[in-house]
Amino acid sequence: MQYHQAESWGYYVPMRTSMLSDPLEKVARLASGSAVVVFSISSCCMCHAVKRLFCGMGVNPTVYELDHDPRGKEIEKALMRLLGNSTSVPVVFIGGKLIGSMDRVNITEWVQAMEGVISKEKNEEI
């Protein structure tokens, strides 16, 4: 899969829909593909805030815009199942592990997880 730099945050990745038929499998595969993954909807203000938060911390997340994918609604429903029917986006995975959506994320988890990712990315740049 080819990554494309876009705007000021991370990477936007066009999703191929023919590879996996089960949306949960697709979410798992996409979530494990990068250190930080955000499932987003381009018009969502909370999604925008999460992406800016990461970029402000020096992290370039891989962003999957569900409204740009033909199967985005199916993936959104799969994310809702993972989260227990809470708000579906933004959904953040760090190191392939589900961190959660904005209404479920504990700030302590965010800070601890982000410190590890930032340290790793800075060490890789050296």
UniProtKB/TrEMBL annotation:
Pfam families: Glutaredoxin. Keywords: Cytoplasm, Heme, Iron, Metal-binding, Redox-active center. PROSITE patterns: CYTC, GLUTAREDOXIN_2. It is found in: Cytoplasm. GO terms for molecular function: electron transfer activity; heme binding; metal ion binding. Residues 28-115 form the Cytochrome c domain. GO terms for cellular component: cytoplasm. Gene3D superfamilies: Glutaredoxin (3.40.30.10). Belongs to the glutaredoxin family. CC-type subfamily. PANTHER family: GLUTAREDOXIN. This is Cytochrome c domain-containing protein. It comes from Salix brachista.
